[in-house]
Amino acid sequence: MRSYALLSLGVVASIAHAATFDVDAGENGLSFEPDTITAAMGDTVNVHFYPGGHTATQSTFDNPCSPMSGGINSGVVNSNSGQASQMFSFQVNTTDPIWMYCGAPGHCAAGMAFVVNPPASGNTLAAYQSASSGKSGSAPSAVSGGVLVANVENSDNDDDTSSSSSSSGGSASATQSSATATGTAAAATTTSATGTGPAAQTPSNAASANFGTVPLLLLAPVAAYMLS
């Protein structure tokens, strides 16, 4: 029984430390912002779409602007003004780099791409974007590897506050969340955005504090049993 309690403790703890990262597609021209994210297994990436008819589509590094078989794909999401009514949410389920691009004609060739967990050396986003030049770009119509859900506006348009990145020293927006990319809904709590340029994202202290109360309430009965 106590082994089960310890297992429950571990599950709740892992949920408490999951993070959600916000990426804006097309807010400032043909770009994803931020274009580089450092995430852990189980973290979630939410892509918010601005006018222009964009996609968030996975490719390999060696074949930019072409959809990877069995990869992540949002399909085309458009907006008449501001963020679209739907966002695309996917879960990071690998430690390998995830190369993402916009499959709208000409967008990938213009450098509209981002990467989750880039390698420490070797293949770079700049090299990927350079190799994309001249490619038309395409994307499947079917959604895969994630889910389209009702958009939860990030705080990109609000006053910015800083949060430090433990991986690269950069900073950007992040939220704590227990949402997954394969469910039928994605619950997320957004926090303030920061930074002066594309950078790996990490959860802010405010998000950690707000989310932490839920696991503590859940852990109280478990801790009481273990001490009895």
Chain-wise SSE layout:
Blueprint: H1 2-16, E1 19-25, E2 32-33, E3 36-37, E4 44-49, E5 57-59, E6 86-91, E7 98-101, E8 113-116, H2 125-132, E9 147-150, E10 175-176, H3 205-227
Parallel strand pairs: 1-4, 3-8
Antiparallel strand pairs: 1-2, 1-10, 4-6, 5-7, 6-9, 7-8
Kindly report how far apart the N and C termini lie.
13 Å
- At the first level of CATH, the class is Mainly Beta
- What is the fold-level CATH name, i.e. the topology? Immunoglobulin-like
Large-scale geometry: globular
State the helix count.
3
Description:
This protein has 228 residues and is of the alpha+beta class. It has one domain: Cupredoxins -  blue copper proteins (Immunoglobulin-like, Sandwich), CATH 2.60.40.420. It has three helices and ten strands. Strands 1, 2, 4, 6, 9 and 10 form a six-stranded mixed beta sheet that branches. The longest helix is centred in the last third of the chain and has 23 residues. The relative contact order is 0.20. The N terminus is likely disordered. It comes from Cladophialophora carrionii CBS 160.54.
